[in-house]
Amino acid sequence: MAENMIYVLNGPNLNLLGTREPAIYGSDTLDDIAGRLEDRASALGLEVDVRQSNHEGHLVDWLHEAQAEGAKAVLLNAGAYTHTSIALHDAIKAIRTPVIEVHLSNPHTREEFRHLSYVGQAAKGTIAGFGALSYLLALEAAAAL
Ligand code: CA2
After folding, report:
1. Catalytic residue among 7, 89, 103, 135
2. Would you write out the chain's pLDDT as a tens digit for each of its 145 residues?
3. Which end of the chain is more exposed for a tag (fewer CB within 10 A), N or C?
């Protein structure tokens, strides 16, 4: 069991973070964010496992794994799959591990197609719009669960 483990799952195109569109997503890379999460997690007596995939099924498998491994929580930035994936919605519903939806930007202030979140409809809660800080705020929420 890994009850101190927080899975931090990132979806499509988030491997490009820090290289393009800094006005929307900031200039931190995913590795930068992972480093900050590791530092804060360690201070909280937690561990983070930060992963990224461009493939929907990998994210589904990792949600199942988080449950099987007894993780404390999952922070999930599903990228554009947020707005399309009933498979992710079902996977979140299928596990008991709490899932916190995370976004760098605030999808509600953007295009209409980003206003629907299949992830958010299944998640415990959502933190969005604070750039890289969204992940750290979500970690604080996970720690308090
Ligand atoms: O704001 C977020 O965190 C999003 O999940 C980011 C997704 C977007 O589809 C969601 O609506 C909101 C897009 C991630 C793309 O990441 C890029 C990073 C750098 C350059 C280009 C794309």
Report:
1. 103
2. 688 999 999 999 999 999 888 888 888 999 999 999 999 999 999 999 999 999 999 999 999 999 999 999 999 999 999 999 999 999 999 999 999 999 999 999 999 999 999 999 999 999 999 999 999 999 999 999 9
3. N
Give the CATH number of the domain where residue 30 resides. Answer: 3.40.50.9100
Residue type, 12: P
Residue nearest to atom 21 of ligand 1 (CA): 20
Mutate to test the pocket of ligand 1, among 105, 135, 136 (most ligand atoms within 8 A of CB): 105
> Which range of residues forms the domain containing residue 26?
5-144
From CA 119, how far away is CA 135, in angstroms rounded? 16
Do the beta carbons of residue 128 and residue 101 sit within 8 Å? Answer: yes
